[in-house]
Design a protein that fits this description.
By secondary structure, this protein is mostly beta strands. The protein contains 3 helices and 29 strands. It has a 12-stranded antiparallel β-barrel with strand order 15-16-17-18-19-20-21-22-23-27-28-29. The structure holds dinuclear copper ion.
Length: 474
C-alpha cells in the first residue's frame, strides 16, 4: 500500500471541486460587503483655493456616488458655495476642510467663493459636473504620428495630452464636421488658465494704473474731493473732518470695447478761475499684462479735456501707464504724461485788470506740462490696500498765483505757489466695488490737472476725499 492512494486521479478531482466550492462561497459572501463599501467610501478630490481661483476648477463626479472634497486654502480665507447641493462652507486661511455630499442629479453646477477675499473674489468660480454613474467611461488612445501624445476620452469629452510639452488641449467635437482648432481649449497641465485680475484699481489716488478694462464691462467711477482742508482733529470735529464742507464731485464712465481697447468719459464739476465744468473724453489701450512675456503691465491713454462742458479751453493728454509687482503684495506704478495746451489762452496767468490800480507787471507761465506720476499700492489685508502717490511736473504748474504788493499797495510782481501732487489713502474692495478714502493736496482729478496742488487752497494743505468704482455688465 502506498500513500499515493490519496492522490489518485479521482481524489484529486474531488479535492479540487471542494476547494473551488469553498472559494466560490467565500466570493459570494464577500461580494455584497464589497459593493457596500464601494458605495459608502467617498471619492476624494483635492482642491486648492487661492486668490483668485479653485485649482482644479472643473470637477467631474458620478451621480449617487458620495464625494469628499478636501479643500485647502493656500493664502487667505475663502469659502465654497455650491448652491445646487446646499453647500456653503468657509475655508480658513492656510487650513484644510472636508465637504462631503452625494450628488443626486446630473448636470453642470457652478460653485463659487463665498468669502470676500480681494479684487478677484467675484471671478473665483468653479464647476461641478455630475454624470450618470454608468456613463463613466475612460478611453485612452495614443497618437501614432506624434510620440508622447495621448488622447483621453472621458464621458465623450476628449483631451489631448502632450507629455513632452506638459500641455493639454480639450478637443471639443462639433455636432457636425471635424474638430476645429478654434473650438479647442488649451492649458498647462495642473494649471488651468483663468482670468487674471490685477490686485490694484484703475487709479492709485489720482495716478492711473494699467489695469485692464474687461470687454463688455461698464465701469463707473465717482470721486469726491472736499474743499475743507484737513485740520487738527479738535477743530475738524465740528465739520466731520471736512466731510461737511462743499465738495468737488466728479463722475466718469469707461467701457471695454475689447479686452484691450476702452473708451472713457469723465466730468469734473470743479469751477475756479480758468477751469470750470471740465469734460474729459478719452480712449485707452492695454498692451500687455505683467506675466511670463512681460515684466511690466503697460497701457496707453489719450484724451481731450474741454471746459464749460467740452466747449472751450481744450487740453490734449497723452499718457503711459506702467505697473510692476515688487513683492507679493506690493505694486509700483509709473505714469508719465504730456499735457498739451494745459495753460492754453494763458488762462491761468493773472491779468493786469485783476487789480486796482491795474498791475504793470506781466506774469506768464509756460503753455504745456509734463508730469511723472509715481505710485504704490501695498495690500495689507486680502481686500485692503494702502495707497501712496507723488507726481512732480515740468513746464506749466497749476497752483495758486499770489500778487506781491509794495507798501503803497501796488502789485509789483507775482509768485506761483505750486507743489508736486501728493496723495495717499486706503482702499477697500468688496466684490465689484472698490472704495478708497483719500487725502491729497489737490481737488482736481482730470488727467491734465490731477498732478497739481490745490488751486485755491495753500498747496501743502491736504483735503479729504474718496474714490468709488463699480463694475457693471460683466
Ligand atoms: Cu476667494 Cu472670495
Amino acid at each position: 500500500m502506498s500513500t499515493t492512494h490519496w492522490f489518485d486521479q479521482r481524489s484529486r478531482s474531488l479535492v479540487f471541486a471542494f476547494l473551488s466550492l469553498l472559494w466560490l462561497m467565500a466570493l459570494c459572501a464577500a461580494s455584497p460587503a464589497q459593493s457596500q463599501t464601494d458605495t459608502q467610501s467617498p471619492v476624494e478630490i483635492k482642491i486648492t483655493a487661492k486668490q483668485f481661483e479653485f485649482d482644479p476648477h472643473t470637477i467631474t463626479v458620478q451621480k449617487d456616488k458620495p464625494v469628499r472634497l478636501i479643500i485647502t486654502s493656500a493664502d487667505v480665507d475663502h469659502g465654497i458655495k455650491l448652491e445646487a447641493f446646499g453647500i456653503n462652507k468657509k475655508i480658513p486661511a492656510k487650513q484644510t476642510i472636508n465637504v462631503e455630499f452625494t450628488p443626486d442629479q446630473v448636470g453642470r453646477f457652478e460653485f463659487k467663493c463665498s468669502v470676500v477675499c480681494g479684487t478677484g473674489h467675484d471671478d473665483m468660480l468653479g464647476e461641478l459636473v455630475v454624470v450618470e454613474g454608468s456613463q463613466q467611461k475612460v478611453e485612452v488612445t495614443f497618437d501614432d504620428q506624434t510620440p508622447g501624445v495621448a488622447i483621453v476620452e472621458v464621458n465623450g469629452e476628449r483631451i489631448r495630452i502632450d507629455t513632452s510639452t506638459k500641455t493639454w488641449t480639450r478637443i471639443e467635437q462639433a455636432k457636425t464636421g471635424p474638430v476645429s482648432p478654434a473650438q479647442s481649449q488649451t492649458g498647462e497641465i495642473r494649471k488651468v488658465a483663468t482670468e487674471k485680475t490685477e490686485p490694484y484699481d484703475y487709479r492709485v489716488v489720482n495716478v492711473p494704473t494699467p489695469k485692464r478694462v474687461l470687454k463688455g464691462s461698464l465701469n463707473l467711477y465717482f470721486t469726491h474731493r472736499f474743499a475743507e482742508p484737513v485740520r487738527p482733529l479738535n477743530e475738524s470735529a465740528r465739520d466731520l473732518i471736512g466731510l461737511d464742507s462743499s465738495a468737488v464731485p466728479s463722475f466718469g464712465l469707461f467701457y471695454g470695447v475689447t479686452d484691450k481697447l476702452y473708451v472713457s468719459a469723465y466730468r469734473s464739476a470743479i469751477c475756479q478761475r480758468g477751469l470750470c465744468r471740465t469734460i474729459e473724453i478719452g480712449a485707452g489701450y492695454h498692451w500687455v499684462d505683467e506675466g511670463a512675456e512681460s515684466p511690466i503691465a503697460v497701457s496707453t491713454y489719450a484724451s481731450i479735456e474741454g471746459d464749460d462742458n467740452f466747449t472751450q479751453n481744450y487740453t490734449y493728454n497723452l499718457q503711459l501707464m506702467v505697473a510692476r509687482s515688487v513683492a507679493k503684495y506690493v505694486n509700483l506704478f509709473f505714469s508719465p504724461a504730456l499735457h498739451l495746451n494745459a495753460n492754453g489762452q494763458r488762462r491761468f496767468d493773472p491779468r493786469a485788470t485783476d487789480f486796482f490800480p491795474p498791475s504793470t507787471v506781466n506774469f506768464s507761465q509756460p503753455k504745456h506740462t509734463g508730469s511723472f506720476g509715481l505710485g504704490v499700492n501695498a495690500r495689507i489685508r486680502p481686500s485692503v490696500s494702502l495707497l501712496f502717490e507723488y507726481t512732480p511736473r515740468v513746464g506749466f504748474k497749476l497752483g495758486r498765483v499770489l500778487p506781491i504788493f509794495d507798501s503803497a499797495g501796488r502789485v509789483t510782481g507775482f509768485r506761483s505757489e505750486s507743489e508736486a501732487e501728493i496723495g495717499f489713502g486706503i482702499q477697500k474692495d468688496v466684490g465689484r466695488h472698490s472704495f478708497s478714502l483719500t487725502f491729497s493736496n489737490t481737488q482736481t482729478t482730470t488727467t491734465s490737472r490731477y498732478n497739481s496742488s490745490n488751486l485755491v487752497l495753500p498747496p501743502s494743505r491736504f483735503t479729504i476725499g474718496f474714490n468709488l468704482y463699480r463694475r457693471f455688465l460683466r
